[in-house]
Protein backbone atom coordinates (compact mmCIF):
# COMPACT_ATOMS: atom_id res chain seq x y z
CA UNK A 1 0.00 0.00 0.00
CA UNK A 2 1.07 3.56 -0.64
CA UNK A 3 2.77 4.90 2.51
CA UNK A 4 1.36 8.43 2.11
CA UNK A 5 -2.30 7.58 2.69
CA UNK A 6 -3.59 4.09 3.37
CA UNK A 7 -6.04 2.27 5.57
CA UNK A 8 -9.56 3.02 6.79
CA UNK A 9 -10.67 6.67 6.91
CA UNK A 10 -14.44 7.04 7.50
CA UNK A 11 -16.10 9.86 5.58
CA UNK A 12 -17.25 11.34 8.86
CA UNK A 13 -20.95 12.03 9.36
CA UNK A 14 -21.42 15.42 10.98
CA UNK A 15 -24.20 16.30 13.45
CA UNK A 16 -26.20 19.50 13.01
CA UNK A 17 -29.09 21.06 14.88
CA UNK A 18 -32.58 21.35 13.43
CA UNK A 19 -31.56 24.81 12.17
CA UNK A 20 -28.38 23.44 10.61
CA UNK A 21 -25.77 24.54 13.15
CA UNK A 22 -22.74 22.26 13.44
CA UNK A 23 -22.44 20.47 16.80
CA UNK A 24 -18.75 20.50 17.71
CA UNK A 25 -18.96 18.23 20.75
CA UNK A 26 -20.89 15.47 18.99
CA UNK A 27 -18.57 15.75 15.97
CA UNK A 28 -15.49 15.26 18.10
CA UNK A 29 -17.12 12.45 20.03
CA UNK A 30 -18.02 10.61 16.85
CA UNK A 31 -14.50 11.05 15.46
CA UNK A 32 -12.99 9.64 18.63
CA UNK A 33 -15.40 6.69 18.52
CA UNK A 34 -14.14 5.90 15.01
CA UNK A 35 -10.50 6.08 16.07
CA UNK A 36 -11.11 3.95 19.17
CA UNK A 37 -12.77 1.33 16.94
CA UNK A 38 -9.58 0.90 14.93
CA UNK A 39 -9.89 3.36 12.06
CA UNK A 40 -6.61 4.81 10.83
CA UNK A 41 -8.08 8.28 10.77
CA UNK A 42 -11.13 10.28 9.77
CA UNK A 43 -12.05 12.30 6.69
CA UNK A 44 -13.65 15.68 7.32
CA UNK A 45 -16.12 17.52 5.10
CA UNK A 46 -16.51 14.99 2.33
CA UNK A 47 -19.82 14.37 0.61
CA UNK A 48 -21.07 12.03 3.35
CA UNK A 49 -20.23 14.75 5.86
CA UNK A 50 -22.29 17.33 3.92
CA UNK A 51 -19.03 19.20 3.54
CA UNK A 52 -19.77 21.59 0.65
CA UNK A 53 -22.74 22.95 2.61
CA UNK A 54 -20.51 24.35 5.37
CA UNK A 55 -18.76 27.70 5.28
CA UNK A 56 -15.00 28.17 5.34
CA UNK A 57 -15.17 29.44 8.92
CA UNK A 58 -17.21 26.45 10.08
CA UNK A 59 -14.77 24.07 8.44
CA UNK A 60 -11.74 25.83 9.91
CA UNK A 61 -13.30 25.93 13.36
CA UNK A 62 -14.14 22.22 13.44
CA UNK A 63 -10.66 21.25 12.26
CA UNK A 64 -9.12 23.40 14.99
CA UNK A 65 -11.46 21.88 17.58
CA UNK A 66 -10.64 18.34 16.47
CA UNK A 67 -6.93 19.01 16.89
CA UNK A 68 -7.52 20.80 20.18
CA UNK A 69 -9.34 17.72 21.48
CA UNK A 70 -6.25 15.58 21.10
CA UNK A 71 -6.89 14.06 17.68
CA UNK A 72 -3.57 14.10 15.86
CA UNK A 73 -3.00 15.97 12.62
CA UNK A 74 -1.88 12.75 10.92
CA UNK A 75 -5.23 11.16 11.80
CA UNK A 76 -7.17 13.58 9.59
CA UNK A 77 -7.79 13.88 5.87
CA UNK A 78 -9.39 17.27 5.28
CA UNK A 79 -11.57 17.83 2.24
CA UNK A 80 -10.84 21.21 0.68
CA UNK A 81 -13.44 21.08 -2.10
CA UNK A 82 -15.00 24.54 -2.46
CA UNK A 83 -16.90 26.62 -4.99
CA UNK A 84 -13.91 28.81 -5.77
CA UNK A 85 -10.22 28.06 -6.13
CA UNK A 86 -9.40 30.87 -3.70
CA UNK A 87 -11.52 29.23 -0.98
CA UNK A 88 -9.97 25.82 -1.63
CA UNK A 89 -6.50 27.36 -1.37
CA UNK A 90 -7.38 29.11 1.88
CA UNK A 91 -8.79 25.90 3.38
CA UNK A 92 -5.67 24.05 2.27
CA UNK A 93 -3.31 26.69 3.69
CA UNK A 94 -5.19 26.69 6.99
CA UNK A 95 -4.95 22.91 7.28
CA UNK A 96 -1.26 22.90 6.35
CA UNK A 97 -0.49 25.55 8.98
CA UNK A 98 -2.05 23.23 11.54
CA UNK A 99 0.05 20.30 10.34
CA UNK A 100 -2.76 18.56 8.45
CA UNK A 101 -1.12 17.67 5.16
CA UNK A 102 -3.48 14.96 3.88
CA UNK A 103 -6.08 16.62 1.69
CA UNK A 104 -8.95 15.41 -0.53
CA UNK A 105 -9.86 17.71 -3.38
CA UNK A 106 -12.50 17.89 -6.11
CA UNK A 107 -12.32 20.93 -8.41
CA UNK A 108 -15.38 23.24 -8.51
CA UNK A 109 -18.39 21.30 -9.73
CA UNK A 110 -20.81 23.95 -10.97
CA UNK A 111 -19.70 23.73 -14.62
CA UNK A 112 -20.80 20.60 -16.46
CA UNK A 113 -18.03 18.40 -17.82
CA UNK A 114 -15.05 20.74 -18.07
CA UNK A 115 -12.16 19.61 -20.24
CA UNK A 116 -9.15 17.80 -18.82
CA UNK A 117 -7.02 20.88 -19.36
CA UNK A 118 -9.24 22.95 -17.09
CA UNK A 119 -9.44 20.26 -14.42
CA UNK A 120 -5.66 19.87 -14.40
CA UNK A 121 -5.12 23.61 -14.19
CA UNK A 122 -7.62 23.96 -11.32
CA UNK A 123 -5.82 21.34 -9.26
CA UNK A 124 -2.43 22.80 -10.14
CA UNK A 125 -3.48 26.28 -9.05
CA UNK A 126 -4.68 24.89 -5.72
CA UNK A 127 -1.48 22.91 -5.12
CA UNK A 128 0.68 25.91 -5.97
CA UNK A 129 -1.52 28.25 -3.96
CA UNK A 130 -1.35 26.10 -0.82
CA UNK A 131 2.42 26.11 -1.14
CA UNK A 132 2.98 23.16 1.19
CA UNK A 133 5.94 20.92 0.38
CA UNK A 134 4.42 18.32 2.71
CA UNK A 135 1.06 18.27 0.93
CA UNK A 136 -0.38 14.81 0.23
CA UNK A 137 -3.40 15.35 -2.02
CA UNK A 138 -5.96 12.77 -3.07
CA UNK A 139 -7.90 13.58 -6.23
CA UNK A 140 -11.61 13.17 -5.53
CA UNK A 141 -13.17 11.23 -8.42
CA UNK A 142 -16.96 11.40 -8.04
CA UNK A 143 -18.54 11.93 -11.48
CA UNK A 144 -22.09 11.36 -10.24
CA UNK A 145 -21.73 14.51 -8.16
CA UNK A 146 -19.32 16.64 -10.15
CA UNK A 147 -20.38 15.62 -13.70
CA UNK A 148 -16.71 14.98 -14.49
CA UNK A 149 -13.98 12.64 -13.39
CA UNK A 150 -10.22 12.44 -13.48
CA UNK A 151 -9.09 10.68 -16.63
CA UNK A 152 -5.91 8.61 -16.56
CA UNK A 153 -4.27 11.30 -18.66
CA UNK A 154 -5.24 14.05 -16.20
CA UNK A 155 -3.99 12.01 -13.25
CA UNK A 156 -0.68 11.30 -14.97
CA UNK A 157 -0.20 14.99 -15.82
CA UNK A 158 -0.95 16.10 -12.25
CA UNK A 159 1.49 13.56 -10.83
CA UNK A 160 4.09 14.79 -13.32
CA UNK A 161 3.52 18.43 -12.34
CA UNK A 162 3.34 17.79 -8.60
CA UNK A 163 5.39 14.71 -7.70
CA UNK A 164 5.09 13.79 -4.04
CA UNK A 165 2.17 16.17 -3.56
CA UNK A 166 -0.54 14.58 -5.71
CA UNK A 167 -0.30 11.11 -4.21
CA UNK A 168 -3.51 9.29 -5.05
CA UNK A 169 -7.17 9.07 -6.01
CA UNK A 170 -10.27 8.60 -3.93
CA UNK A 171 -12.59 6.74 -6.32
CA UNK A 172 -16.26 7.29 -5.54
CA UNK A 173 -17.45 6.16 -8.97
CA UNK A 174 -18.92 2.95 -7.56
CA UNK A 175 -17.43 1.18 -10.58
CA UNK A 176 -15.20 -1.69 -9.53
CA UNK A 177 -13.65 -2.03 -12.99
CA UNK A 178 -12.67 1.64 -12.87
CA UNK A 179 -11.05 1.30 -9.45
CA UNK A 180 -9.16 -1.84 -10.50
CA UNK A 181 -7.93 -0.05 -13.62
CA UNK A 182 -6.63 2.82 -11.47
CA UNK A 183 -4.77 0.41 -9.20
CA UNK A 184 -3.21 -1.28 -12.22
CA UNK A 185 -2.33 1.94 -14.07
CA UNK A 186 -0.94 3.81 -11.06
CA UNK A 187 0.75 1.34 -8.72
CA UNK A 188 2.80 4.18 -7.23
CA UNK A 189 -0.33 6.05 -6.08
CA UNK A 190 -2.72 5.58 -3.18
CA UNK A 191 -6.00 4.31 -4.62
CA UNK A 192 -8.78 4.47 -2.02
CA UNK A 193 -12.28 3.35 -2.92
CA UNK A 194 -15.61 4.55 -1.61
CA UNK A 195 -17.73 1.51 -2.52
CA UNK A 196 -17.48 -0.81 0.45
CA UNK A 197 -18.00 -4.06 -1.45
CA UNK A 198 -15.11 -3.10 -3.75
CA UNK A 199 -12.56 -2.54 -0.97
CA UNK A 200 -11.25 -6.10 -0.74
CA UNK A 201 -11.01 -6.81 -4.50
CA UNK A 202 -9.20 -3.52 -5.14
CA UNK A 203 -6.83 -3.95 -2.21
CA UNK A 204 -5.89 -7.41 -3.44
CA UNK A 205 -4.83 -5.76 -6.70
CA UNK A 206 -2.79 -3.04 -5.01
CA UNK A 207 -5.33 -0.56 -3.63
CA UNK A 208 -4.44 1.32 -0.47
CA UNK A 209 -7.68 1.36 1.47
CA UNK A 210 -10.94 3.23 1.71
CA UNK A 211 -12.71 6.46 2.53
CA UNK A 212 -16.32 5.36 2.94
CA UNK A 213 -19.60 6.06 4.68
CA UNK A 214 -20.41 2.63 6.11
CA UNK A 215 -17.47 2.80 8.50
CA UNK A 216 -19.47 5.39 10.48
CA UNK A 217 -21.86 2.57 11.38
CA UNK A 218 -19.67 -0.53 11.27
CA UNK A 219 -16.00 0.33 11.82
CA UNK A 220 -15.17 -3.12 13.19
CA UNK A 221 -16.63 -4.81 10.13
CA UNK A 222 -14.67 -2.61 7.73
CA UNK A 223 -11.51 -3.07 9.79
CA UNK A 224 -11.81 -6.85 9.41
CA UNK A 225 -12.27 -6.54 5.66
CA UNK A 226 -9.22 -4.34 5.28
CA UNK A 227 -6.98 -6.38 7.56
CA UNK A 228 -7.48 -9.51 5.46
CA UNK A 229 -8.84 -8.49 2.05
CA UNK A 230 -8.09 -11.84 0.45
CA UNK A 231 -9.97 -13.74 3.16
CA UNK A 232 -13.21 -11.81 3.71
CA UNK A 233 -15.82 -14.15 5.14
CA UNK A 234 -19.16 -14.80 3.51
CA UNK A 235 -20.81 -13.61 6.72
CA UNK A 236 -19.07 -10.24 6.51
CA UNK A 237 -19.98 -9.80 2.84
CA UNK A 238 -23.58 -10.62 3.73
CA UNK A 239 -23.55 -8.13 6.61
CA UNK A 240 -22.07 -5.35 4.46
CA UNK A 241 -24.64 -6.03 1.78
CA UNK A 242 -27.50 -5.93 4.30
CA UNK A 243 -26.31 -2.66 5.84
CA UNK A 244 -25.81 -1.04 2.45
CA UNK A 245 -29.28 -2.22 1.47
CA UNK A 246 -30.71 0.13 4.09
CA UNK A 247 -29.63 3.07 1.94
CA UNK A 248 -32.16 2.12 -0.72
CA UNK A 249 -34.85 0.48 1.39
CA UNK A 250 -37.19 3.15 0.01
CA UNK A 251 -36.73 4.64 -3.46
CA UNK A 252 -34.85 7.91 -3.93
CA UNK A 253 -33.73 8.32 -0.35
CA UNK A 254 -30.77 10.63 0.31
CA UNK A 255 -27.95 8.30 1.35
CA UNK A 256 -26.62 10.73 3.95
CA UNK A 257 -30.02 10.81 5.61
CA UNK A 258 -30.15 7.02 5.66
CA UNK A 259 -26.71 6.80 7.26
CA UNK A 260 -27.73 9.34 9.88
CA UNK A 261 -30.95 7.45 10.59
CA UNK A 262 -29.00 4.28 11.33
CA UNK A 263 -26.53 6.19 13.51
CA UNK A 264 -29.45 7.69 15.44
CA UNK A 265 -30.83 4.18 15.94
CA UNK A 266 -27.45 2.87 17.08
CA UNK A 267 -26.74 5.68 19.52
CA UNK A 268 -30.27 6.43 20.71
CA UNK A 269 -29.58 10.07 19.82
CA UNK A 270 -32.13 11.49 17.39
CA UNK A 271 -30.06 14.65 17.04
CA UNK A 272 -28.33 12.71 14.26
CA UNK A 273 -31.51 12.82 12.16
CA UNK A 274 -30.98 16.50 11.34
CA UNK A 275 -29.51 17.55 7.99
CA UNK A 276 -27.88 20.70 6.66
CA UNK A 277 -30.01 22.40 4.00
CA UNK A 278 -30.46 21.90 1.09
CA UNK A 279 -30.49 18.27 2.26
CA UNK A 280 -33.49 17.31 4.38
CA UNK A 281 -34.22 14.56 6.92
CA UNK A 282 -35.94 11.34 5.94
CA UNK A 283 -39.72 11.46 6.07
CA UNK A 284 -41.53 9.40 8.70
CA UNK A 285 -42.16 6.37 6.47
CA UNK A 286 -38.53 6.30 5.29
CA UNK A 287 -37.23 6.61 8.83
CA UNK A 288 -39.50 3.81 10.03
CA UNK A 289 -38.34 1.54 7.19
CA UNK A 290 -34.65 2.19 7.87
CA UNK A 291 -35.00 1.62 11.60
CA UNK A 292 -37.00 -1.57 11.16
CA UNK A 293 -34.60 -2.80 8.50
CA UNK A 294 -31.65 -2.20 10.77
CA UNK A 295 -33.25 -4.05 13.67
CA UNK A 296 -34.16 -6.93 11.34
CA UNK A 297 -30.49 -7.56 10.61
CA UNK A 298 -30.52 -8.83 14.17
CA UNK A 299 -27.78 -10.81 15.88
CA UNK A 300 -25.20 -10.03 13.20
CA UNK A 301 -25.15 -6.43 14.44
CA UNK A 302 -23.07 -7.53 17.42
CA UNK A 303 -20.15 -7.97 15.02
CA UNK A 304 -20.10 -4.54 13.36
Question: What does this protein structure show overall?
Answer:
There is one protein chain. Helix content is 43%, strand content 10%. The protein is an alpha/beta fold. The chain is globular and about 50 Å long. The protein has a single domain, classed as Alpha-Beta Barrel (TIM Barrel). The mean pLDDT is 96. The chain starts with 6 loop residues before the first strand and ends in a 7-residue tail after the last helix. Strands 1-8-7-6-5-4-3-2 form an eight-stranded parallel sheet.
Précis, in short:
The protein has helices at 24-36, 56-68, 85-97, 116-130, 143-146, 152-161, 176-185, 199-204, 219-227, 234-245, 255-267, 284-297, and strands spanning 7-8, 42-44, 76-79, 102-105, 136-141, 166-171, 190-193, 209-210. With 304 residues, the protein is of the alpha/beta class. It has one domain (7-226): Aldolase class I (TIM Barrel, Alpha-Beta Barrel).
Q: Based on the structure given, which CATH architecture is correct?
A: Alpha-Beta Barrel
What is the H level of CATH, i.e. the homologous superfamily? Aldolase class I
CATH class: Alpha Beta
Mean pLDDT metric: 96
Amino acid sequence: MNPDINGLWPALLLPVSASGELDMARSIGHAKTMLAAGCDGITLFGTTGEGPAFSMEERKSLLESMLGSGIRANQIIVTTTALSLAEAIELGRHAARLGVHRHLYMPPFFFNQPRDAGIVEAVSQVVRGIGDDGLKMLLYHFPAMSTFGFSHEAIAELVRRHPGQVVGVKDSSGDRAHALALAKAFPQLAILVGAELDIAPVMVEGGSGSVNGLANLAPGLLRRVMDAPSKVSEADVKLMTALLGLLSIRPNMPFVGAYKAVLAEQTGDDFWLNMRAPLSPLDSSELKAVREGYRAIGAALAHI
